[in-house]
TrEMBL record:
Transmembrane segments: none annotated. Pfam families: TPR_19. The lineage of its organism: Bacteria, Pseudomonadati, Pseudomonadota, Alphaproteobacteria, Rhodobacterales. TPR repeats lie at residues 173-206. InterPro entries: TPR-like_helical_dom_sf, TPR_rpt. Gene3D superfamilies: Tetratricopeptide repeat domain. Coiled coil: none annotated. PROSITE patterns: PROKAR_LIPOPROTEIN, TPR. This is Tetratrico peptide repeat group 5 domain-containing protein. Keywords: TPR repeat.
Length: 290
């Protein structure tokens, strides 16, 4: 797969080389062609890691790595493509191979820890992060440190890492959302609500954060929807989330009312909400899933 603009640029390079061949010896032409091929390969690698099919990207980097086993950039590409293809166990092995090569960096160690967490190897991730010197400060490093601290219920440490990570990026919506979810799992719904609101100031379109905000509010008995941007379909889904939270808290009447609002609001048939409402109406022994 080649990008049209990219191919046009290569064609221009080829024409330039052709015009120079009469005045260049074979060695110079070979060096020039090698330079063009390097540009070709670099751009293709970038395309594979962004818009290419994940499995095709894995196959490309596996083939290229087999042909160039000492190329650390290709090994990195393979590891990244495996993460993108949702193959974290293989990605861990690929990142370990990167770290075995000269030129490996602390960023590579951070990427290994990320893959280990994706593979549910929390102990391995903690061990990897501990090999990184404290002078290496990056958003991804502290984001992962926060997640590991969360997994061990070291709340103060987690909060410190989340705060540090948020200060190291211009797009902190994701980290505030994760931090809020951490607070919610600890039972601090009010703290979670504040963080979800903060996340939405940076990305008002992120539905996961909207849903988490409604869940945090409903956990406190605040069932009215917050004043945030939402489509009609999103509003219906958020009402459904609030309804399930109300039912879980034992506020059955409120839950039924919210379910009916969700059904009436949704621009299409809302099967899940309809089933939940019918289950509540069928009697006290009914089970509402959600």
């Amino acid at each position: 797969m080649r990008h049209p603009i990219f191919l046009a640029a290569l064609a221009g390079c080829a024409m330039t080389l052709s015009g120079c061949m009469g005045n260049s010896n074979d060695a110079e032409v070979a060096r020039a062609m090698k330079s063009v091929n390097a540009v070709d390969e670099s751009n293709l690698s970038d395309i594979m890691l962004t818009v290419g099919d994940p499995d095709e990207a894995v196959a490309y980097f596996q083939r290229t790595a087999a042909e160039n086993p000492d190329r650390i950039d290709i090994r990195r590409g393979l590891a990244k493509s495996l993460v993108r293809a949702d193959k974290p166990v293989q990605a861990v092995k690929a990142w370990e191979q990167v770290l075995a090569l000269p030129g490996a960096t602390n960023d590579d160690r951070v990427s290994l820890a990320d893959a280990q967490i994706r593979a549910n190897d929390w102990a391995g991730a903690k061990k990897t992060l501990n090999t990184i010197p404290p002078t290496h400060e990056s958003y991804d490093r502290y984001r992962l440190e926060a997640m590991v601290a969360d997994s061990e219920k070291q709340w103060k440490k987690a909060d410190s890492f989340y705060e540090t990570a948020a200060g190291l990026t211009t797009k902190p919506s994701g980290i505030y959302n994760n931090w809020g979810f951490s607070k919610l799992t600890r039972g601090d719904a009010a703290g979670a609500e504040k963080l979800f609101k903060e996340a939405l100031t940076y990305d008002p379109h992120r539905f996961t954060t909207k849903n988490n905000l409604v869940l945090a509010r409903a956990s406190q008995g605040k069932y009215e929807l917050p004043v945030i941007e939402m489509t009609q379909a999103e509003r219906a889904q958020l009402l459904y989330t609030a309804a399930l939270a109300a039912i879980k808290r034992g506020d059955i009447t409120m839950g039924k009312s919210l379910l009916q609002d969700a059904i009436d609001t949704n621009p299409q048939y809302f099967a899940e909400a309809d089933r939940a409402l019918k289950a509540l109406d069928s009697g006290p022994g009914a089970t509402v899933k959600g």
